[in-house]
Amino acid sequence: MKHLLTTLLLLIPAFVFAEDKAKHVKADEAAKIIAAGKVVIVDVRTSDEFKDGHIKGAKNIDIMSSDFEAQLAKLNKTQPTLVHCQSGSRSTRSLKTFEKLGFTNLIHLDEGFSGWEKAGKPVEK
């Protein structure tokens, strides 16, 4: 019984802290992926943040909107999809929704748009 309890306690963190299935990249690698083409860029920030500056070609789908999941569901789930927010926090949270909807090729910009700007990458307004 002790052995079973110990085994269960060791397995709990694997379920609680299960990693997402996205590929995690920084700005330089994200820029290469974008330059190669055929990637959908999803910016999960607010529309005001998006208007202040965004990655060229990005689709703005606000994670805080009531129809966030419905908007994501309209996208091609097999196409490479680069997801980001301002710093990486909201987009990290959004990965669960992407995965729940069946997206199979997720790429996460870990430092978000602020990391993109800090790296001197182009910004569209």
Describe the structure.
This protein is an alpha/beta fold. The protein has one domain: Oxidized Rhodanese, domain 1, CATH 3.40.250.10. It contains six helices and five strands. The chain has a five-stranded parallel beta sheet with strand order 1-5-4-2-3. Helix 5 links the parallel strand 4 and strand 5. The radius of gyration is 17 Å and the shape is globular.
- Whole-number mean pLDDT: 89
Question: How is the biggest beta sheet arranged?
Answer: 5 strands, parallel
Which architecture name does CATH use?
3-Layer(aba) Sandwich
CATH hierarchy class name: Alpha Beta
Distance between the termini: 62 Å
As a whole number of angstroms, the C-alpha radius of gyration is: 17 Å
What is the overall shape? globular
Give the structural class. alpha/beta
Q: What is the topology, as strand order, of the major beta sheet?
A: 1-5-4-2-3
Number of strands: 5
CATH superfamily: Rhodanese-like domain
Strand content: 5-15%
What's the structural domain tally? Answer: 1
CATH topology (level 3) name: Oxidized Rhodanese, domain 1
Low-confidence stretches: 2-18
What is the helix/strand order?
Answer: HEHEHEHEHEH
Helix content: 40-55%
Enumerate how many helices there are, as a single number: 6
